[in-house]
Write the structure tokens for this entry.
Amino acid sequence: MSRRLHATCVLGALVLTALLLWGCDRSGTQELRSYIDEVRARPPGPIEPLPEIQPVHAFVFESEGRRDPFVMDTQTATAAGADNSLAPDPLRPEEELESYPLDSLRMVGTVQQQETRWALVRTREGLVYRVRVGNYLGMNNGQIVGITDDTVRLTEIVSEVPGDWRERSAELKLTP
């Protein structure tokens, strides 16, 4: 008896499926077909001409009386070699927050654990990092030199002329 019931259920499902598919006739596509035929019957429009290509005027560099931009002159080389002791360590592993511009980072608080004060810094994605004195952040080799309740002070090392490194101070202020 159960086999017969199973066969009846399968047959009923097949009949129901056939009825549903039969209900999905093509009458709804007639409007679409008539629109396609109408578009095909339209006369083709003119093709817009290609834009006129403007000639590029070449610049010929004449070094007579000018400095060669690809060669460092002696004054720049002297200035560049003057104080190379500030150059950042290229072998130092980069920290996570060094991939963010300083103006995209926000100080959102501080935490004190034993003798260490940590600053909480939020990225533009909303991730919060815990940093302390000695950590680096920002894209200009900025090392944290002090943390107060409302400020993270850091010293950045920037290059104004290739090879000429300068220190400058920067701060992150607490943002509510």
